[in-house]
Amino acid sequence: MTLNTKPQPTTHTIDATDRTLGRVASEAAHALLGKRSVHFAKNQAQPVTVTINNASKLHLPARRTAGKIYIHYTGYPGGLREMRMADMITKKGIAEVVTKTVSGMIPHNHLHKPRMKNLVVNE
To answer: Which of 30, 85, 87, 102 shows a CA-CA span of 20 to 30 A to 56?
Structure first.
């Protein structure tokens, strides 16, 4: 006899103080995918809420903020838009940078949006 149990909603908290962006983002992506749960299934979004605290205290070297470029194509001729990480931090905040980084580590399928809704970034 098999018992089908629903996974309980869980919360995973990450403190980003003095940690690099990639390590924090990969830990958050790993938790959002549900790989920490015994109920893991590739075709289901697990009820996991990931909270990243102290995002403004991330260790970001000046070389990274000046050199990293986010590229976006609007779909129109001549519509290639570029924004440096330093500009994005000043215009949109560090939370947008963390969110984009975690988003890039999660598969872009029909579960991407429900998984990303469970990410909370506190500055």
So the answer is: 30
In a domain, 81, yes or no: no
In-domain check, residue 43: yes
> Among 109, 122, 121, 117, which Cα is nearest to 46's?
117
Query: CB under 8 Å, gap of 24 or more: what pairs does 98-102 form?
Result: 98/16, 98/21, 98/24, 98/25, 98/52, 98/55, 98/58, 100/70, 101/21, 101/22, 101/25, 102/25, 102/28, 102/29, 102/32
Residue 103 lies in a domain: yes
Length of the chain: 123
Domain around 114: 10-59+93-121
For range 1-18, the mean pLDDT = 85
Element (H, E) at 116: helix 112-116
| Packing angle of the helix pair 85-92, 94-104 (nearest 10 deg) | 120
CATH for 17: 3.90.1180.10
